[in-house]
């Protein structure tokens, strides 16, 4: 009898180490014990605008995941896809409709409010040399107050267990360390932040190394 073994195609991740959305994907892969084939995208030299990359992702953003020919972009879509495909039954993205809806709400809060407001406040300073806008800072702090409220009486952002919502949001919030935003003045956020840093698998490798790269980029840009 002949037994055929078919090797699974590698899962490619096109990424930039300092990017918070990319770090969220790396954190999720580590939590799933999934090895990704990492492909660095040189944004400075416009690799994201080359035809071969645009074919994968017309929005020319990072991260982009390619799994057996299927291309997916937007980090929060990627991390839920990874759990759906490679982590069946995992509490990272629970199958119960109510529990999953809560995770989804937190993910949408991250992309539409928390990280969005941080981006609008901080990135014009880093990449455009703009002065800090106090009104935009207030909006970031309002988002942090909401996060603090979500965490009242909760160990994690979507309930008692670690989920992809925590991994996405900690990638975002950790990026605040490169700015003047004092997120640790919010007691629940500070407690949660320290807890996820010690409970998320491979946190040092998957997030802190990239965070250091982001801080270095910010320092170099702000000196110009």
From TrEMBL:
Signal peptide: none annotated. Homodimer. Residues 9-90 form the GST N-terminal domain. Pfam families: GST_C, GST_N_3. One of its GO terms (molecular function) is glutathione transferase activity. Residues 96-217 form the GST C-terminal domain. One of its GO terms (biological process) is glutathione metabolic process. This is Uncharacterized protein. SUPFAM superfamilies: GST C-terminal domain-like, Thioredoxin-like.
């Amino acid at each position: 009898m002949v037994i055929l073994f078919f090797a699974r195609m590698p899962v490619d991740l096109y990424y930039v180490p300092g990017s918070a959305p990319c770090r969220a994907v790396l954190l999720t892969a580590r939590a799933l014990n999934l090895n990704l084939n990492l492909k660095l995208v040189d944004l400075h030299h416009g690799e994201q605008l080359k035809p071969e990359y645009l074919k994968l992702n017309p929005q020319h953003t990072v991260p982009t995941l390619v799994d057996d020919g299927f291309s997916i972009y937007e980090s929060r879509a990627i991390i839920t896809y990874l759990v759906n495909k490679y982590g069946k039954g995992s509490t990272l993205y629970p199958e119960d409709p109510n529990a999953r809806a809560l995770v989804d709400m937190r993910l949408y809060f991250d992309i539409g409010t928390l990280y969005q407001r941080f981006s609008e406040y901080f990135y014009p300073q880093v990449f455009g040399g703009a002065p800090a806008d106090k009104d935009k800072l207030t909006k970031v702090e309002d988002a942090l107050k909401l996060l603090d409220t979500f965490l009242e009486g909760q160990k994690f952002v979507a309930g008692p267990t670690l989920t992809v919502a925590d991994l996405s949001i900690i990638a975002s919030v950790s990026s605040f360390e490169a700015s003047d935003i004092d997120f640790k003045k919010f007691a629940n956020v500070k407690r949660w932040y320290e807890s996820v840093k010690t409970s998320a698998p491979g946190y040092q490798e998957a997030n802190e190394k990239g965070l250091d790269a982001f801080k270095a980029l910010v320092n170099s840009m702000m000196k110009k």
